[in-house]
Amino acid sequence: TMFEKSLTDLIQGLRANKRNEAQYIQTSLEEIQSEVQMSDTQYKSAAIDKLNYLHMLGYDMNWANFNIVEVMASSRFNEKRAGYLAATQSFHQETDVLMLTTNLIRKDLASSNAMEVSVALDGLAQIVTPEQAADLFEDVLAILGHPRPYIRKKALVCLYRLVLRYPEGLHEFVPRLKDALDDPDPSVVSSAVSVICELSRTNPHNYMPLAPKLYHLLNSSTNNWMRIKIVKLFASLTPIEPRLAKKLHGPLSQLIKVTTAMSLLYECIHTAVVGDVISVPIPVTDNIGREIDFAELCAQNLVRFYESKDHNLCYVGLVTLAHLQAKRPDLVVDQYDIIIGCLDYPDLSIRMRALEVITGMTTRRTLTTSVKRLMSQLILSNTVALQPSNTTNVGLGNGTRAAGSDDDASLSIDSLGTSLVSAQGNFVSPRRPRKLDADPADSPEYRTAIVDSILDMCSRNSYSNMTNFEWYVATLVDLVYVSGVDVGHKLSERLLDVTVRVRQVREYSVKMARRLLSDKNIVEYITCKSPNAKVLSTAAYILGEYSSLLPASSDDIGLLLPPSLSRLNGEQQAMFIQAAMKVYTNWLHDVSGYWNNEMWELVRSVTSATVSTLSTLVFSCADVEATKATAAGSMPMH
Q: Quick one: average pLDDT of 369-376?
């Protein structure tokens, strides 16, 4: 006969023909094309089964869409089920034969066979178009009165998919959802709650009238999964109706105290925080009988999450802790040591959430410790922050060892106003032996987030946490060396801001600017696209603007006119040249007080070298802005 292979035969044949699988499949497809043309629906259904299997392996079956509809119309349930399954796999919104299925599905929905109704609901939910949703909405709505709970449950879920395509049906669907909450079967009630929870994501206000029944279910149900859905739903309703917070205070606090299900515990705490239930001034009793604030009860139980070895629990705990921190920062500060430990998790997402919390909880007392901890993650990673001189380890001074030594754990950061690395001279970022597993601290996203956190903690509220501005300037310079990511623009902004705003730190800023410009590892390899180009331009501005705060030195002029200056863009070159002219003028003013022949020769020599450098820049630079600055700074010697 034409019908040669069943689905089982096809699978066994694929396993036996691994070397010529493509040829075997092509032969099978030719056989299937012949089989679907047969009048016997049994053979046709078996062919569709095989075609559906091959479709899951990546082969097209759209050419058989009409044959699939024929199998869907079969009077035998097992064949009908095969047709619906193939339709859910193959049909899409533009499938041309979908219009032929509307009356077929309507007939199956009205069938006295519950299994046919079930398979029709499943198939319709997957392939429904806006036109079908409008045509079949009433038919599915009528099934909510079906005697079998199994069918009523499926009808609710199918109606959810229909109203996504046909929003006008919501007006009729919501009252029936409300009735479904009183269904005698708990599985139907659970399905209704799930559908309401999903629909409320777009417009929770529509489901506010259901709040009384949902509240009753929250108190009476013993199904934790349904409780979770209801609690999540109240999280979206509470911001709309603040009075709900007082009603939820009792049930949520009771569930937090007695439940052993971590998923339900999390949702209760999360809803209490984001729904502002914690602001209700009603005390609760903890597990040892003490009267405490509801927010404190939430904070106590959140510890179970971010102390957990389960990464998922730790992550969601930190997410909710960040929400709690925004409303009750006093409760989060006490968890500082635990949260700082989360920075050692191998999971990058957990580190990012912990970083967010640490940034918000840092105070004047913990600022130095927090920055020290974050800086150590930048330094003790595999990332090499400075290219190309990246092949040697150096001692960091101040009791600090080079990363990669046996004493990594003793890394310390001096908070007394001296820099971790830059105050020790030229720094080459340490290289550690590569690990088999990727270190999250090497992620550019994480390193950028660390830098952002350090800058935020130090400058928040106009430097309200800062007690030592010299230490802050030194930290900014350290980040130039150890960040390992392109944050030069951010660092230059903060360095300039603190220098301009804090008069007491300007002299130290000039020293650090001079040190940056003296570092050949940075200056010799700088280009206009280098991450540190903006930092060096800002350092040049600071050195030129406030050079009078330090003893004048002709060496500073050379620092501001390095050979690599020609590789910068016009705006950057202009900042260096203008700064060099300011330093030159300040130096001439200083030396004029003790003029002699020796000093005259030094002035001639420095001026000649400066003019020569500026002349070279004029011929090598086509940028108008830099050329103007060079021309303005050039002065012939007489």
A: 92
Q: Are 105 and 137 in contact (CB under 8 A)?
A: no
Alpha carbon distance 542, 539 (integer Å): 5
- pLDDT averaged over every residue in the chain: 85
- Give 551-567 pLDDT, tens digit per residue: 878 888 888 888 888 88
> Does pTM top 0.85 for this prediction?
no
Cα of 437 vs its chain's centroid, Å: 21
Residue-level pLDDT at 191: 95
pLDDT in tens, 206-240: 899 999 999 999 999 999 999 999 999 999 999 89
Tell me the HSE value of 40 on the side-chain side, using a 13 A CA sphere.
Answer: 9
The rounded distance, in Å, linking the Cα atoms of 540 and 514 is 8
Sign for the pseudo-dihedral over CA of 138, 144, 145, 149: positive
Alpha-carbon distance of 332 to 362, in angstroms, equals 10
> Is pLDDT at 257 greater than 70 in this prediction?
yes
Q: Nearest to residue 123, comparing CAs of 143, 144, 102?
A: 102
Q: What is the dihedral of CA 119, 120, 126, 128, to 10 degrees?
A: 180
Alpha carbons 447 and 350: distance in angstroms, whole number: 14
**Alpha carbon of 90 to those of 41, 127, 131, 490, 499: distances in Å?**
19, 9, 19, 52, 66
